[in-house]
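G., before I forget:
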Amino acid sequence: MEFNTEFILGCSAIGAGLAVIAGIGPGVGQGIAAGHAAAAVGRNPGAKSDITSTMLLGQAVAETTGLYGLLIAMLLLFVKPLI
Amino acid sequence: MEQGMLLSAGADIDFMVHGVFSYELFGQTVWITTTHICVLIVMLVIIAFCFAANRAVKHATEVPGTFQNIVELVVEMLDNMVGGVMGKHAPRFRNYIGTIFIFILVSNLSGLFGLRPPTADYGVTLALGLMSFSVIHFNKFKHQKVKGVIEGLCSPWPFWAPINIIGDIAVPISLSLRLFANILSGVVMMALVYGLLSQIAIIWPAALHVYFDMFSGAIQTYVFCMLTMTYVSDACTTD
């Protein structure tokens, strides 16, 4: 079956939109990390700087899966592998 | 698409890598891109800093001047960071970790000076990831010997080995993709702001620069070095 370029481009755009739904997961994960960090600072305000750096490190690692979704979207939109 | 992947530009929103000039090498067309030029600029800046630092330390004074203070601060900070994570393995890896830390940090911050950050090109970050991968596995074979490595691969049960191998191969890929995607997302955002909102992009994009270029860049630098250190000190422990 033959598809024209416009059809494939439109489907790629829909696919890119679906791919960035991956951002939900890291959002929830980072929120949980920040919430627990806030609770930890509440219990032990003296360790605030340690807690903050640990939280940022964990969040930056948790962000990875969302960025994979972003990468897929960028590939679909700009590299156009399906054409 | 005659310039190859990621080299073509779209409309007036411009965040792609551009080819500057090309030459033929063994029948292959090799492009010198903006990334090469940005890496060169970053390299020259770091080398100039190194020469100045070397000179300042050679003529060190009892009461340190401003520049000598900065150099000592940077070296002490890197030493403490590596020492805090790697413990007794730290002295052998201070050079490597310090080098990649300074390179990635200056690369990420170069977005502030109008360059396209070199780390927003997968070629650069993959090279960094593969360097870390080599260091990890060299030290694994050095400290755990071949027997220990094979035992590590077959750790719960022997048929677990393929999954362990995939886990090992995923390390450089995830390290490099994390850095690349973070910096690329910043570059795309700034290009969209300057491309689509160019009429009203006055002063306030500075706040976005602080987040995308400085905060995100510094955090990702720290994460890259932190994970490399964790993996390396994991590879160095024999049990």
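Chain A touches chain B through 13 residues (CB under 8 Å). Chain A has a mean pLDDT of 90.

More on Monday.
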